[in-house]
């Protein structure tokens, strides 16, 4: 099949879970025998160019990149709030240059499938339908409004709480209309797919989790001194900041009291200035900022934490950590959509005392932690092979097109 994938941010470099999910699926689709073109926006926040994409990836995927400036500021939020019906985090991705290149692609190429990566390119659906008669699919990385619902409930500032509630309602309105706009739904988790079905999605749908290429995950990074724990995540995404602050405020002091010499290694791009300053001055915290390789960073620490309090979709870094044989401690929200078992594949804890106890337990009993990592690796190999999952998606599309 000839497949066009459109994305609001470049899959390469894979700087966060979303970009990695898009990149691995596109590579998988190409290795499954499809011709794959990626049309993507590149902005100052998520920059990319053909020059930095490795040849072995460009040999599999045709990339077309539109460079644009995406501005987010208070006047923009206010104008959007008063004069637009679209959520601001969707409206900011509207680009005339991108629309023109999209139309050109649809007219000049014989695509069988157009796959939209996430909700943020929703405004282009009418354009796609007008110029394309094949299968339009949306791959939902999350149920977006659920993220903002949970952020709103955890927010203390009344103005921000009001805005997040307003944003969640706008996003939910769009998500309820998707069945009218697309021909198929691909969800990363089964709970997300079920939400769409329960809320009016009547077209064909399938759950395809994020895949990995196990043979490609290698690292020669030197391990840090034991004991140590690590965290990696984009620090310009509110759920990540919220969860990490919760861990630092309520969990980290308990762990330090029991294991005074423990180190906490944190990696993440675009941290707010005040938060970055906190990470750089707190005792026994080593802040790495953005790292060149997530797998190399994770390979240095035996224990990985994922303290997420709000969110939807699949925590892609957990899948990567499982492939890297890490011992993982996470909240129940973080593992939602992954059919793992507490104390078999990882440890799940939602209260500060429970989370701290889980971390200390695998430090004090390394053999237990190693067994969890071994079990996690076997689970990941069986359930998250990127090429196998891409074949499943290809078969799904072929059945619809018959």
TrEMBL record:
<protein>
    <submittedName>
        <fullName>Glycosyltransferase family 4 protein</fullName>
    </submittedName>
</protein>
<dbReference type="GO" id="GO:0016757">
    <property type="term" value="F:glycosyltransferase activity"/>
</dbReference>
<keyword id="KW-0808">Transferase</keyword>
<dbReference type="Pfam" id="PF13692">
    <property type="entry name" value="Glyco_trans_1_4"/>
</dbReference>
